[in-house]
Amino acid sequence: MPSKPAPMKKPPAKKAAEKAPEPAAEPEPAPPAEAPAEPTPAAAAPADDSPAAEGAAPVPSSAPLDVAVDDVNDTSLTIKWKTPENVGGSGLSGYTVEYRKDGTTDWIVANGELIVAERYCIRSLATGDLLHVRVVAVNSGGRSEPGLLPEPVPVREIGDRPKIRLPRLLRSRYVGKVGQQINLVIPFVGKPKPAVSWLKDGQPLDTKRVNIRNTNRDSIMFIRSAQREDSGVYEMTLKVESLEDKTTITLQIVDLPGPPASVKLVDAWGFNAALEWTPPKDNGNSDITGYTLQKADKKTGEWFTVLEHYHRLTATVSDLVMGNSYLFRVFSENQVGRSENGAVTKTAATIQKTGIVYKPPEYQEHDFSEAPKFTTPLINRATTVGYTTKLLCSVRGCPKPKIEWMKNQMIIGNDPKFRQISNQGICSLEIRKACSFDGGVYTCRAKNAQGEAMVSCKLEVKQVLLSETEK
Hints:
Oligomer: single chain
Number of helices: 3
Helix content: under 10%
Radius of gyration: 49 Å
Shape: flat
């Protein structure tokens, strides 16, 4: 039986693409059906390496995937999509992009020739039209099912999505001083011009205190003379139609702190005076960073700084002059500076001329006595006849413990075969040229007045194995 004529790959696809623009109510699969009806001389010739020669007719691919809008303005619409899941055995020849106005049934081909890119811009559109768009994949089997855009697209200038570009300086906290002029510029993007609104701590702004000026590109918050009540969390909202973006700015207005709540003289002895004070009631809306301590001799009344940037709430002033009386005052400090006034002690510290007796402190002697304790135990060893081996351990104790070595519960003593060393808690027993008789259990015993401790290990002495030639 003669094989079916193989259709050409490229020409039928091109003809199918050229027939697509004709506005007709015929179903879409019609163009592929017409392609075999127009055989060419080349198509009539048998081609052994074509799919038709194998008895399988080419089939159209599946529909393009994820058809979506990439961009749109008042005269053009850009569509993008993804490759069909099944492109057919012969591969794709290209794509055709078609569109129709809402309310009509005629599809218009946007591209005159097949395109291979998966993105296409439809140009010369009328502003205000509502368009339906579909994409058709074409291969040697004809046109695929169309991949449709989910919703019709209005041809108009789309505004940029509102986005606030908060400066890095304002992303954590903005700190200003009382009386300082605050001028914060917050850039943004959005098209058409976004609507900008501000809140402070969830409430509308007091326009008598805070001025807001908006342009097409930024919003400016201006405070002529900042006060502590201007501190808070400001929320900026940027809105374009149904889209919006928000950001918050934490504003902290700080001032000089008040003086410590109280300061008193705790004790005076020798040439020293001990003081203590309490933190200020008003920290100036900022953390207290330290204190400044001053002293004044009651005879002169002049103040001299003793400590600056001091962090504790107690202090001892030394090197006072015998026979003089002193007053003390303490200032608070924060990041703005030092408090305007200081808290002054109510009583003066008088340094007496006589009766100064120094009593050295008494310290209880520590008992360092400790019973012996092995910190490193003995480890089982194995050696060969004729080789010297060494056993090691470590011990601590106070007073220094006496060390004794035993073999199989018998004290070794001064046997010349063994060498015993004890140095700074490291105990070693050296067994010279061990023989089979030297195997057994070795014990190290440490004793002092507090007690004793023992540690043991097993030593195995192996015979030398002779080879066949040595025998």
